[in-house]
Design a protein that fits this description.
6 helices; about 35% helix; about 5% strand
């Protein structure tokens, strides 16, 4: 079965919204189609989904409401914000299998592969567009941490 095969979840699409909600769906992009909303209503009426369950899946709404309450045109500490984002980003990096290789201990040579290392690609189009106050370029962040490695 391919990614767009007869499975319940498709690439970039929700085919069975009830199953997707049960699997952890919070937000469907683009917004839900009427037929999938009707699937959820039918599942609630049939007792397959409860109001409590649906409320637990509405985490994104809590974020939306919190953002709406945030005063606009305020100020914030750009450097502190960037430092926090940087700290979070470095802590969430992971490997599928490490086998004790990381963190590297006194490496002699490091290969940094791919154009995104020096020309960070961090933005898509449409609703994914954002305008960061600062951008940490991976290669430039890595070099000072390499010690004497080439």
């Amino acid at each position: 079965m391919g990614l767009r095969g007869p499975g319940r979840f498709g690439l970039g699409a929700v085919r069975d919204r009830v199953a997707a909600l049960k699997a952890g769906l919070d937000w469907e992009m683009p917004g839900p189609q009427e037929r999938r909303v009707k699937q959820v209503v039918a599942a609630v009426r049939a007792g397959e989904l409860t109001r409590i369950f649906l409320t637990s899946r509405a985490r994104i709404l809590r974020i939306v409401f919190k953002a709406k309450e945030t005063p606009k045109n305020g100020t914030f500490n750009v450097d502190a914000h960037h430092e926090l984002a940087y700290q979070i980003a470095t802590e969430v990096w992971c490997c599928s299998r490490n086998n004790g290789i990381l963190p590297l201990k006194d490496p002699a040579h490091i290969a940094v592969i791919g154009r995104s290392a020096e020309n960070a690609h961090f933005q898509g189009g449409g609703s994914s567009a954002h305008y960061p106050t600062k951008v940490a370029v991976p290669f430039k962040e890595l070099v000072p941490r390499l010690g004497n490695a080439n």
